[in-house]
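Quick start: read one record
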Amino acid sequence: MGNSYAGQLRTTRFEEVLHNSIEASLRSNTIVPRPVFSQLYLETEQTLAQDGRTENDDEEDEEGSESNSPPTPYQMKLPPEGCCTTDGFCQAGKDLRLSSLASDPLDVPPGLMLVGVKSPSLPDNLLVCAVDRRFLPDERGLNALLGFSGNCMGCGEKGFRYFTEFSNHINLKLSTQPKKQKYLKYHLCRNNQGILVKGAPICWRGNDGRMRQIRSSLPEGHLTSDEQPPNLALTHPSHIPGCHTGSHAEPQAADVPHTLINGSHAVPSTAQPPLNQAGPWRPSATGPHPNAGPPKKRHKGWSPESSANSVPESTVKSPPSSLASSTLSVSSVITNGARSETASVQSSSQGSSTPLPPPELSVTVPDQLLNHCRLQPVIFKGHGPLPHLTGNVTEVLVSSLLQSCYLSSQTLPRVYQHYGPSPIQPLSTEMQILLTVYYLVQLGSEQVPLIQDLEQIFMRSWRESHLSEIRQFQQAQTAGTQGRHYGIETPSTLPGLPQHLSLPPQSQQPLTPSQLPWLAQLAASSCGEGVVVFGEEVRSLSQGLQKTFSRLMDGRLKNTNYVVIIVTSPGQETQSCVVVTGKHQCRALAESMFSPSEGLKEINLQLSAGVAQELIHYCNSLGQDGDMDSLLDSASVDTNEASPLSSSQESADERSCKNSQSPKETQSPKDLHIQGSKDAPSPKETAPSPKDKCSEYSVEWHEVRPIQLAVARKLLSHVCAIADSSTQNLDLGSFDRISFLILVPPSEVAYQQTVLQLWSSGVLRELGGLEQECVSQQDAERYVVKMDQSAKARIDNLLQEAHRKSYTLYILVHDHAHWDICSSSCSRSDSGLGLVDQLLNSRQVKDAANILILHVTSFPFALQTQCTRISPYNEIHWPSAFSNDVDLYHERMRYFGVSELLESTRSGSSLPLMRSDSSFESMASTLEERFPKLHSAVIRTIVLIQHYCVALMAASGRISSSHNLHKHTSVETMEIVQSLLTAAQQCPAHHGHMVLLRIPSLALASWAHRRLSTVRKQLGLEENFEIILGNPSQALTIGRTFTDQIKTWLKIQDAEWVPHTYLELEALPCILILSGAEPLGESLPRSLKYCDLRVISCSYLHRTTLEQELGLAAYLVKAESRPPHNPGPGSDVIESDAEKLSSTDNEEEEGQENRDSPLPSSQPLPSGPESGGVEPPSARSAISPNVPKGTLDTIQSPSKSQTQLQPLPSPQPYPYARTSPLPQHQPVLQSYPQAQATSQLQSQPQSQIQSLSQPNSQPHTQTPTQLHPLSQSQIPSKSASSSSSSPRAPSPHLSCSWVRGVSRPPCVLLPRALYDIITASDSSGLPRFSSFLPHISVAWASSFRPLLSKMMTCTEQSLYYRQWTVPRSYHMDSSNRTEGRSDNFHPRRLLLSGPPQVGKTGAYLHFLGILSRMLIRLMEVDIYDEEDINCNVQAEGVQYHPPNAPWPTTDIMKTMPFDYIIHDAKYDDISIVYCPGFIPSVEGNPVRQEDVYLRRRTARIKLSKYAAYNTYHHCEQCHQYLGFNPRYQIYESTLHAFTFTHLLLGEDIQLYFIIPKSKEHYFSFSQPGGQLESMRLPLTSEWSPDSIKSPIFTPTTGHHEHGLFNLYHAMDGASHLHILVVKEYEMAVYKKYWPNHIMLVLPTVFNGAGIGAAHFLIKELSYHNLELERSRRLEGGGDVWPFIILADDSCVMWNAVELDGRSGPVEQAVSLKHVLQHMEACPDLAQYGLCGIRKWSSRGHTGNKQWEPFSRGHLHDFLLLNVDRSQNVQYDQNRFTCQDVDFTLRLHSAGLLICRFNSFSVMKKQIAIGGYRTFIIKTKMTDVPTSVGPSQYICAPDSKHLFLATPAQLLLEKYLQHTSQKLFPLSTKNYSHPVLSVDCYLNLGPEVTVCFVSSRPHSVNISTTGLLFSGLLLCFADAFVTSGFLKKFTFLKGATLCVISADRSSLRQTVGRLELEEQWRFRLSDEFQTANAKEDRPLFFLTGKHI
């Protein structure tokens, strides 16, 4: 039917698709799920196979198939007789051509849309038809239904159902099979004049034939982005320095923008749903759904492996330089000239269907262009094909980046195209060109164009022209949705287009081609010669280019930066291109073509070739002031003589307050003197002596800071969340220890730094039980590995070890995780890249269930793409320390990061901490023009080092001042050098500060190190400061003198010690030259004062790159070093809002957790953030802004903190080798500029604002300050610390600049170009660079993305990048494209992100420690460990059984006395049972409160392998046991009713069994699936080594999560029948948590009952079932097993006693299977009524000295009950407490044998919630538990009393327990006169003794002869209790009687029947009832006194 593109029906069942769609709808209320029915069609997302074709391509291609075989002939159906067969007309003779119908009104039925049909016989025109939109694809090439439906727009005939039929009707005259996707080519739409024009191409398969031809020649095989952002440099620029060819080819496939190519729209493989692109946007947590199946039709050469698209090594280049998100980088330079374009890429203008012009003639590039013009022009392709370049092509660069921007801005989302009555049109070609001219005109002479700005201008213009339609659409989409949405409205202002440049009113009149040239020239005229437009005077691009070249050679474009060539020939498409002719712009664009590694190679090449020597010689010349080398040689350097440094020095801190003035505005340094410092000795003169100590110096080896602790806990909670999820991805309960390996980048300093922090953290001592003495740094090195070639062996060893040790959890910490994210398949083996992908993303690591990966980075953006392996739920973001200016963590340190640096540039009240150096820039710019062939990094570095050398010469005092050296350096450099030299002299211990000089090229850095060292030596300054070369691949080396100095400061005794990290250089005066393409995570000391970044590259403008360099200056500042209400730049106001982009998601509990911690002693208490107070003006120096500048010299302004804080004493020094020698400070910014507001200052009263804005407003200055004279235009801004000569501030530590320096962050010097970019903000207030491409390895998914919002949290920012970025082909995540979302995320992978230097290493090390402790804790459990009570009875000395007897002997057991005394410590608050011969202790048992769980003694015991577990335990062995059996669906169980009759209840009892399918074999049914008949029981004679005969019943309530019902391990694999007995209202929750357990559901009437009811029903049901089984088994003979097990739900482990001759009984853990099988094998077991085991105690078996293996007495918690022999003794169904004591006493009195196996013990776990002992007493009036005293549990009958909603029996039991001393006053503490309790035991409190007797005939009772009772308790006395029976007992006079009955009448009957009134006196007021309402059936009782 011509529609074979769509594919066949999916194999997925309809129900699954429907379920998935519903689930997607429920999970998200912002993302519209894909339609259910469209999912039923196979619409694979577009991915190119190796040959460049998409998976859904058809065999036939347009204009030339790739196949060499002839096409299959197609026999077209002959037209009917007499019909029209003219091309362009339908068979009815009506005209269908677009040119004819363009202005006609056409009636389009609803649901149809106009489409342009391409006819082979009319190549220059389109045919108009109407097609049902359901059969057309969306903009992603998806969701088109099979088939066709359309109308003819000529004759009006409707209802064509086949495209074959329709193609015949419109006379397409085809020779091949008609396919709709081949001939339905364009949407048609009307322009502003109502003319029907060609619109966007119909997106069949995501690209068309021409695009396929282009890409088939490229090595990369799949698309990675939706629409290539125009601000991206192309992925693999093939560039060889010095061989620039003029021929150009298309960019590699990974970066090809999806564009309009001959009108066809290319769409990405991972396109987002249209609503995400166009309408309101909200980040989604999950990625797209790519399909990874084979192509629908097998293309030649396709194989399953080909989808990997392995790139030939020869084609792989390193990542692009990218001007990526910023400059128009050149992207299509091809080496060795010879490659021509595969196809010309061009765009069609709106409304034009004119043919393209013929190919143009070639253009010859003139010779000697570079030498003559001193620049290398860059040609940006625009619209139309660029002519071929010949001649000197190596000196011209060609880029298609601008063309990509044009094309992407014309590719509108379909939702905009077809919304409303008229579709929205993209920008026309003419408007794009005009906007480009506008943009170029407003650029400054030194600015390099940013393609991102141009793209935003296009978007803004387009939106403004269609504002109403877009708003209508967005309103329609947002209706009914909730939550915050991020629309894609453009900002009101754009960085690239100032407000005064108004956009043409496009909505009124379209811009015509004829108007374009003169409008462009008019715009260009405003900037003089800066932009030249060639328009009407050129007829072709080749003519325009030739004209440009000739003008360049003639020198007529000397002042021109850009030439715009516009060709507008009538009847042809408008063509354009831009030639960049500005020297600065051409250089920047050319250098941006290098990848970072290639750029460094080019620099090395230039240095090694000696081409930089001319520049070096040039810089050495000082003009009239001589030559540097000769001046240095002439300097008389006497090493024994002090350098006269101080003669022309000013204080370092005074210098630091200077503004960046031009040299002529700046005072000469020799005019600024420090009084009293002239005689300061050189450091080399003064050997360290006791008096030369700085009292203020202290290196704080930090403990874990509160915020690090909070982050460690967040990490732990995420790990626990993975373990607790239902995915079974991490079984924490199965691990008993952890091990870890920390992976760091290949930097020796970073490696040593991590080792040092690990060693000092104490984690290793916690892990392996290593003794503190033997934990050395060598031990720590085993846990840290550099990611170089040695890492593979280390990780392979770890994998092997992890495979062997499955009970160890291994954590791979990938620190600095953004460093190496290259795909291993795209990296050379010798490059050192791709290792992370090869090692961490391997199948072995992914499949290892005991390996957890933690990525740690300050810049997580590259790991947050559509193909990320990390779930958004596994991201942990560093929290903000402040929320609404409240310190959440009480930190002593305050983080100062990139956002604070930026804020300092905006505050205006102080000298910005971040600035550029104008004089350096002007000198470098001049030399760049003079040396056009040298790389700018070479020029800038040589100039900068020259400045440093001159500054050293000037500051040293060795060179005569007549040489005017100051004018040959810059003010900023002079300040840095003077501060460095003078700082160490001002401190007695010679403390100084660090200057960081960042030079990325190692070759340049080495040259700079040599040069500076030479100058230092010639000036005799070797002892003053050190110069350190920071080479990542080498260890740190410093001079011996400085090493000894550091050892003195740190009190290190080890003679061999040398510093290994920069952190150990604290307070050392030094210049650190840090090399390397990027910083690798090295932390810097807090003595860093200047961060000189003036020579870093301006070419690679990515967010990660910029923030990484700025992060070097991140700093932890003492929080108390400045007034809370004097924020100044960099204050916490910037961090106050935790919801800002730069902040993070602060969790409330973290704030609460830390809010109670005490304020640090050093925190200023008054005027703190909480008090809101401001220091009174008297404590400040309130300086009016109008004070004349001359008077400012002497004004002092002590800062607030200084006046309040006394210097803290230095902490006691510890031996370095034994303590934590590493400061935990690793301050940090990620992308978390802590967004800052200055409203706090503005809210102060004006007078306070004035005082706050005065000199001490500089952040973090703690010292009194002294100000320079400043120019009138300057505001007194930065506190300049005075020396000790200051008369008003005699603070002792002012002389040490290190002390002053640690209180303020370092200054940062930037290149001017970067400074302008970094300090600019977009309309939302975010720094402009934050919207740059986040990383070099990713690309934007679509240019129609929204902008980042300032209100986004870090989580939302992550989701933004996950939705809008895709990995490039060489990114390690590019291969992570699996079908379905669930497999994309690695289940055990976490990401910790936080700003640079903030302390992430300390946080994750602490996380490792607490995770280790938690695992140990998980393997332990709190066991009740209580000594037996009431054990002071003397041992009888009788040994009944041999100590090693395995089983009891019945005859012997009968002779053993029954021990009435209760020994279980849980019953230490109940009444003692009277036993003759027992003497209670004098003090008795301590009275315990109701809170029994928290007051009982417990011991922490490690779980054995035979433990019982709760629902939190997951392990592979348990899966089937817990119901994860592939044979059964989870939750597949049936409900069965079971009814039996019992006399006591007087009615039938109906119980329900919930029986899983897997457990049905334990029951017998009338038929399969029929009525439940009985529970199968084995015969007594049966025995199996792998089964337990007795059914196990566990009554439980409130313990659905914590109950220990998982007996798999306890049973050691033995089959057993386990039944949970639950209340009806808890049935659902127990079934949810334990789906594979059998449930016995109690009747509804027992919902409020106690444990007695459960035991009663279990026992009676078991006896009834025993009889049923006996009747069922009558034929087979044999006796049925009569025992059941009653087990508490907290029994966790079991032990057996082994007798050791020397040490006595020894206990060891055994399985429950062993215990039960041993007891079940006991001979004569049927003779026993009840058996049990001991309760475990760490003190063993106490009481008797000899070991008695068996005893008779009370049994608890774990019982083996003979339901046959105990048939006539029931549990009391009404009891809530002491039911086991009561039952045991009645069972013994009935003559049944009770035996306790002392050789076994049970351990009971403490479960602090739920259970049968949890009682809630509440009133009827409210459901809220109220405090009701025991005296209110009863009341007089018929009285008005507060009724309680509590069972009557519970009220009675509680009343008797708590008030028995009033009820039985004679019984209190009177053991010899107990209360007589007949037939039942009730707890009367611990002070009353109860004597139990049974009234049953033949019962066993104690002898009561001669015993006087102090009371009588009759509870529900039955017929066995008679007056004659009571008369056997003797009572004291005044003894108390208590008779309890169910109602008043039975109470009176009992009194009468038992003739109680004869001996007992009753009063009317002695009758009571429980405080229950009548409907709750209260209990009644009567008290009386014995006469």
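DSSP finds 52 helices and 56 strands in the chain.
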